[in-house]
Design goal:
The protein has two domains: 104 residues, Thrombin, subunit H; 32 residues. The chain has two helices and eight strands; from the N terminus they run ββββββββαα. The longest helix has 23 residues. The chain is elongated, with a radius of gyration of 27 Å. 12% of the residues are buried. The strands form two sheets. It has a six-stranded antiparallel beta barrel. Strands 1-2 form a two-stranded antiparallel sheet. The protein is α+β, with helices and mostly antiparallel strands and 160 residues long.
Length: 160
């Protein structure tokens, strides 16, 4: 079930002003630690307290620690996935009834910003001009000849 109420981007005196408005809304959230630490680290259920464009406030059954990563799935009232992605715990407080309240910052949603490995395309410190020169056919031939010469020299030295 979803309930909506618009929260103003201001807090009580002495608290930081929020940069964006939050919707007071309740959704079911399934979450697990990312990466999973053990095979029995199952998905757990939490409920949203509020939601903004960049994060969620959750009501949890366990305490989390700031900096932890969570794989979360938020479902709408009809059971459809509304958010499916990776979030970072920003803060967490325990309540009097033994539950915990946490603030999450969304880092990546599936389909929007996929996680990719980045490989350097050229050596760090080389300029673009030097990188282009490395592909010059004459230079490549000369370097391969010198490489072969070095390899033959090493083999000869090892025999002696």
């Amino acid at each position: 079930m979803t309930a909506f109420a618009e929260a103003r981007p201001q807090g009580p005196p002495g608290t930081p002003v929020r940069s964006e408005p939050r919707q007071q809304t309740v959704h079911v959230v399934e979450y697990s630690r990312y990466p999973r630490r053990s095979p029995d680290d199952t998905r757990r259920v939490a409920y949203t307290q509020d939601r903004s464009a960049t994060g969620l406030g959750l009501d949890l059954g366990e305490r989390l620690f700031p900096g932890e990563l969570l794989q979360i799935t938020l479902r709408d009232i009809d059971g459809e996935h509304s958010i499916d992605g990776l979030a970072r715990v920003v803060w967490c407080r325990e309540s009097a009834d033994g539950r915990a309240h946490a603030g999450l910052a969304m880092m990546r949603e599936k389909g929007e910003r996929p996680m990719m490995r980045v490989r350097p395309t050229r050596k760090i410190g080389r300029t673009r001009r030097e990188g282009d020169r490395a592909l010059d056919p004459d230079r490549v031939r000369a370097e391969s000849r010198s490489h072969r010469f070095d390899a033959e020299t090493r083999r000869t030295r090892q025999r002696l």
